[in-house]
Amino acid sequence: MTEDVLEIRNLYISYQTKQGKVKAAEDVSFKIRCGDFVGLSGESGCGKTTTALAVMHLLPKEGIVEGGEILFNGRNVLEYKDQEVREYLWRDVSMIFQGAMNALNPVHKVIDQMTTAIQIHEGVSHEEARERSLELIDSVGIDIARAGGYPHEMSGGMKQRLMIALALVCHPSLVIADEPTTALDVMVQAQILELLKQLRNRTNLSLLLITHDLSVIAETCDHTIIMYAGRIVEMGSTSKIFSDPEHPYTMKLISSFPSILSDKGIDYIPGNPPDLINPPSGCRFHPRCDFTINQCKENSPPLEEQDNHLVACWRRSDI
Ligand SMILES: Nc1ncnc2c1ncn2[C@@H]1O[C@H](COP(=O)(O)OP(=O)(O)OP(=O)(O)O)[C@@H](O)[C@H]1O
Ligand SMILES: [Mg+2]
């Protein structure tokens, strides 16, 4: 077994649409080490969910992996046949989907939904599955007396905690959480973050945490990946990314994040992320960047490593 639980190498994904091919992920490469919490951020439409769905083998049929490898414990999951995918999903990797807390079935009691999921995935008896459901519900901080209730009787935060519990049913080594706190108020969000942090102490779990909310990443993750328009533009330790970002996009993203403690005002990035059917030539960020030179318009900058920190910018050394 390798130290890296997940390694994505040069992944290219596109969606076939009537308007043309949407190049949603281009040359995406990163690793997640065993026990590491990694944050993935970037503006809406930059390819975060697409990348996660590819790892889960759950891209819709119009989503095509055009190239690259997704190695889980050293094996390329893209080559898995149906049976292998069934064994891999939820046991090796599980996912808390964007907006998932509304995915609980409204007509079944929470405990029954969970018990059925455990029975199906683990092939254990009803009694054992029920016992494990109660343990999991308890482990995410929900009073087991509430487990016999229906989803509509639960608050958003409780439902989201249940989704986390469901993702942990088969003891996966990697959990992908896509916007797990976005729909929650700040207090409940803080509880979910605390829960994620506790999980890390309890098991050797790795987490890929996808969110627009940089403060969530700053709070929970060891490493941070910033994507822009389908490509990774910067990647490194969370402390370095937040204290000394090197890509102009990351700088803007961080300075456009509101802080109630500071009176510096909010910066923002003019314009919108590009259309991924006809993305800009060269660096995809160049039309919105304050530091653009001709080279940025012509050639796409490679992601280059310096002191374990990767940045894709032609002007890295002089800005
Ligand atoms: N099924 C699809 N068909 C066509 N295009 C799609 C499909 N799903 C996603 N896309 C496009 O692929 C790109 C990446 O989308 P993706 O959902 O991965 O972004 P994201 O970073 O998760 O955004 P958000 O923060 O809004 O969730 C976007 O341009 C999006 O419009
Ligand atoms: Mg998404």
Quick take:
The protein is α/β, with parallel strands linked by helices. The chain folds into 2 domains: 4-92 and 173-268, 3-Layer(aba) Sandwich (Rossmann fold), CATH 3.40.50.300; 101-171, no CATH class.
Radius of gyration: 20 Å
Described by the principal axes of the CA atoms, the overall outline is globular
Distance between the termini: 41 Å
* Range of strand content: 15-25%
Briefly note the structural class of the backbone.
alpha/beta
Give the helix level as a range of percent: 25-40%
For CATH, the homologous superfamily of the largest domain is named as P-loop containing nucleotide triphosphate hydrolases
Strand order of the largest sheet: 6-7-8-3-9-10-12-11
Q: Tally of extended strands?
A: 12
Query: What's the helix-strand series?
Result: EEEHEEHEHHHEHEHEEHHHEE
Give the overall pLDDT as a whole number.
91
Level-2 CATH architecture of the largest domain = 3-Layer(aba) Sandwich
Uncertain runs are none
In the CATH hierarchy, the third-tier topology of the largest domain is known as Rossmann fold
Q: How many domain regions? A: 2
Largest sheet: 8 strands, mixed
Small-molecule binders: adenosine-5'-triphosphate, magnesium ion
